[in-house]
Amino acid sequence: MRIGLVGVGRIGAFHARTLLGLDDVDSLVVADADDAAAQRVAAEIGAEHAGDVDGLLGSGIDGFVIAAATPAHAELLRQGIAAGVPTFCEKPVARTLDETLELARLEAESSTPVHIGFQRRFDAGYQRVRDAIAADELGFVHTIRANTHDQTPPHASYIPTSGGIFRDCNVHDFDAIRFVTGQEVESAYATGGNKGEQFFVDAGDVDSGAALLRLVDGTTCLVSSTRYNGAGHDVRLEAMGSKGTLTAGLDDSLAMRSAEEGVTFPPGPGHATFMDRFQPAYVAELTAFAAVARGETPSPCTVADALQAFRTAEACDRSWREGRVVPLAEVADL
């Protein structure tokens, strides 16, 4: 297969190397708004280079991977769909709810498959929790705990375009909750605060957040996020049921230490970044996209799926700003 990728920043260069390591990918063409960066990365990894997106889409590619900065996602996704090229897009598909709704409608009207990059769906631990819930191994699930805790914050320039902590970090948790439970969110109450850098305040954001979600079947979900988890990158999901509890992300790399005497678990080492934590999941995710691009399987995560996670993030953002419970019925849907 011949794959085109736009965006060669941190996640884009990471995806480019992953794609070239797949048996299904014979050649890779890269492009970037910073053409010099695209040329440099292409030379470093042995990929081809296209001067712009039109040239990339017209180069005979079988699949199109969008890993550019968030503000560019929506227009690039429109271009991929218009070209009829199976498209993979990193989350979020757009910066606003209205634009996400527009793209979900565009997807529904098109025959071009679109795969949105929620890599936790391809993590073995999250898949095991999903299977356990579906098989009734845990009994009735009454509580879900999910967290996204970054070790260190991103660069200050990233925050104003991130969409805020609930749309940027916890949107992964919101999608994972839907994925493992098969349930939709009914309501959200959220809060947040700042004890770190001033640039979060300046951008109207928080550096730590928490949300209480109620699912339509009555399950309670406790969700947290922070940009300052000094112990390491910590992403987990716990499903607690009447018969037992199962946790994704509970292993030797867990970014915490016990206060109990004599307890040596977890021994470490921990993870520093999400790319380290989810490297196998990213390989599985892009392998799955290759199958989508070949027409062998439907998209495992559509724009319509991404919309539901974004709606929950939107409800949480409204909640912490307005200090109230926000019903999901209040947030626009298809």
From TrEMBL:
The keyword Iron-sulfur does not apply. Residues 1-118 form the Gfo/Idh/MocA-like oxidoreductase N-terminal domain. Residues 126-246 form the GFO/IDH/MocA-like oxidoreductase domain. The keyword Transmembrane does not apply. Pfam families: GFO_IDH_MocA, GFO_IDH_MocA_C3. Coiled coil: none annotated. Keywords: NAD, Oxidoreductase. InterPro entries: Gfo/Idh/MocA-like_OxRdtase_N (IPR000683), GFO_IDH_MocA-like_dom (IPR055170), NAD(P)-bd_dom_sf (IPR036291). GO terms for molecular function: nucleotide binding; oxidoreductase activity. Belongs to the Gfo/Idh/MocA family. PANTHER family: BINDING ROSSMANN FOLD OXIDOREDUCTASE, PUTATIVE (AFU_ORTHOLOGUE AFUA_2G10240)-RELATED, NAD(P)-BINDING ROSSMANN-FOLD SUPERFAMILY PROTEIN-RELATED. This is Dehydrogenase.
